[in-house]
Design brief:
Blueprint: E1 2-6, E2 15-21, E3 27-34, E4 45-46, E5 50-55, E6 58-59, H1 62-66, E7 73-74, E8 81-86, E9 95-98, E10 110-113, E11 120-123, E12 137-138
Antiparallel strand pairs: 1-2, 2-3, 4-5, 5-8, 6-7, 8-9, 10-11, 11-12
Length: 142
């Protein structure tokens, strides 16, 4: 099983943990990464080679929380992003793809890989596709 958590080191932290667990529930692999800004990661996709984490737009900060605002708020200045990690290796082959505008699609419809030079394709929602190159394929080392 693969699981992820955002704000992994506490309120408003930019830490994301991605873990692989065995059938007994023991963590077999843990990858810790930093988001470029703190945002909700509501869903993920997993292919044989990659883990896809889309996020964007909904943000928080300690300053926001101390000011008594609700935890998450929309910030149209933050771009949509897709993080891609290798499913089985440590740090090699990571990518962060930035969209041209702030959009948020909470669910991944599908993702799959292929053997050529662009091995990951994620369909995240019709508006979020503006994050992807025209081909729809993310260029990530396999």
């Amino acid at each position: 099983m693969i699981a992820f958590g955002y704000e992994a080191m506490g309120l408003a932290s930019d830490d994301v943990f991605v873990c692989t667990l065995d059938k007994t529930g023991q963590v077999k692999r843990e990858v810790r990464i930093k988001q470029p800004y703190v945002s909700i990661i509501h869903d993920m996709a997993v292919t044989q080679k990659h883990i896809v984490l889309p996020f964007g737009g909904y943000v928080t900060s300690l300053e926001r929380l101390k000011a008594g605002k609700i935890h998450w708020g929309w910030d149209q200045t933050k771009p949509s992003m897709i993080g891609v990690l290798p499913a089985r290796r440590r740090g090699e082959g990571r990518a962060l793809v930035q969209g041209s505008r702030a959009l948020h699609d909470a669910h991944v419809q599908r993702a799959h890989g292929r053997q050529q030079s662009h091995p990951v394709r994620a369909v995240l929602g019709f508006e979020f596709l503006s994050v992807l190159p025209a081909s729809g394929w993310l260029a990530v080392e396999s």
